[in-house]
Amino acid sequence: MAVNISRRTFLKDVSKGTLGLAAASVIGVPGALAEEAKPFEGKMQFAGTHNVRHITEDLLWLGASDQRIALFENVYPVPRGISYNAYLLLDEKTVLFDTVDRSVAGQFFENLTYGLQGRTLDYIVVHHLEPDHSAMIAEVVRRYPDVQIVCTELAATMLKNFQQIDVAQHGYTVSEGMGLNVGSHSFVFTMAPMVHWPEVMMTYDATTGTLFSADAFGTFGAIGGNLFADEVKFETEWIDDARRYYCNIVGKYGPQVQDVLAKAGTLEIRMVCPLHGPIWRENIGWFVGKYDQWSRYEPEEKSVLVVYGSIYGGTENAAALISTRLSMGGQFNVVTRDVSKTHVSELIAEAFRCSHIVLASATYNNEIFTPMKNFLGDLAAHNLQGRTYALIENGSWSPVAGAKMKAMMDAMPGMRQVGETVTIHSTPNEENYEQIVALAEAVLADLAGASESAPAVEEVAGERWKCTVCGYIHEGALPEDFKCPVCNVGPDKFERVE
Ligand code: FEO
Question: How many CA within 13 A on the CB side of residue 479?
C-alpha cells in the first residue's frame, strides 16, 4: 500500500527538529519561502484559462473567487465576494488539499489539470466537509479514480451522506497526530472540531512549517490578484470582513478555537493557508492574536456600539442623542446602527469588537421590537459574553422592551448593565433628555474606569466534562440522558477534564 500513515503523538511526530516547540513559535516566513516562487519551466500543458499561482516552488494555489455571490451560506452578505482556496503539492506524490464550491468548479478543474502537468493525483486531503470546499470531491474521484482520500472518520461519514463516496474504498481516515509522508514533505494531522464543523482537521507540513488551517484564519472577500495577506492592506481594508467572518462563522466556538490555538502555539508556523481569503506568510502573530482575542470574547477596543430599533423616529432620536453625548465626552469611535437596516452579521461583529453596547428599542406587540429581539437572540447564539451594556426603551402606552432586553442580556455570561434604563413614551421629553445625558456620562465613566479586559465570567466550581467530538465543555455532573448541545452526542463521548 503506497500510503505511509503512522500513529505518532502530535508533538513527537516528525521529531527530526522540524517541529519547533518554543512558546513564541509563530514566526515570519524564512528566506526560501519569501523569495518569488518559480513557475513551471519549459513547455506547459495548456489547460484552458487556468489561473494558478505558485506559493512555493512545489505548492500551488488552485482556488478561485466568486464575485457574483450575494449571500455566503445564503445568510451573510459578501459585497466583496469570497474565495474558495484549494492547494496542490507536487512532491514524489501529488496532493490536493480540498476542492472548491460548485460555483467555481470550472476554474478549479482547469487549474488542477494545469497544475498536475499530466501527472496523476495521488491524494486528496479533506479538511472540511462543508460543500463550499468539498463539492468537487466526487468529480475529482471520477477524474482520478486511483486518488486516495485522507480525512477524519466523521468526515468520511459526511462524505457518504453528501456524495455517496465510501472512503474505505477510496482512501483512509486519520486522527489526531497521525502523519503522512509524500516524499520530501511530511504532514501531521491535527483535529479542529467545531472550527467550523465537528469533522474539521488541519494539516501541518512539518517540512515547510505550513499550516493548512481549514476555515480558520479565513475571511470574506474575493482574491483579486493579490494572493498573500502582505500584498493587500489587510489591517485596514480587510480586517472588518475578517472579523465579520470569524464572529459569525465560528464565533460561537471560542473554547474550540482556543484549543486549536494552544496546539498551534507548539508549532513553528511559517505560513498559514486557509480555505478562504489571503495566505499568511508575514505578520502571522498579529492575526493569530486577533483570533485569540475574539475566541476569548475579549473586546478589541474600549468603544461603544449603539444599536437602535425605532418605528417612527422617537427611539432613533434618543439613540442619536446618546451617541452625540458620548462623542462630546471624548468617545471618538462610537458606532451607531439602525437594527432594522443593518445586517445582523455586521452588528454581531461590532459587538465582538466593542467593550460597551447601548441598546435602544421600541416596544412592539408587548415585546422587544422584533429586529432588536432577533439581534439579541443572535448575540446569544454566538456566545458573546463579558460586555457592559446600557438600555433605553420606548413605549407609547406600556413600555416593556427595557426589562425584556435586560433579561436577554443578563442570560449571556458576564454581561453587566451600567446606568439606569431610560424609559421614553413616544418621543424623548425634557426629563428624558437629562436621563440620556446622565446615561451617557455613566457609560463614559465606566469606559474611563474599565479595564482592557471584559468583566470576568464567573467560574463554575465542580465537575467539568469535555465532548471528545466537538470540544464542548459541560460544567457540573453529566446526567445519563445528557446530549451535547453542540453536536448531540451522548455521555459516552465525554471525558472528564480538570
Ligand atoms: Fe468555508 Fe465551514 O466552510
Answer: 4
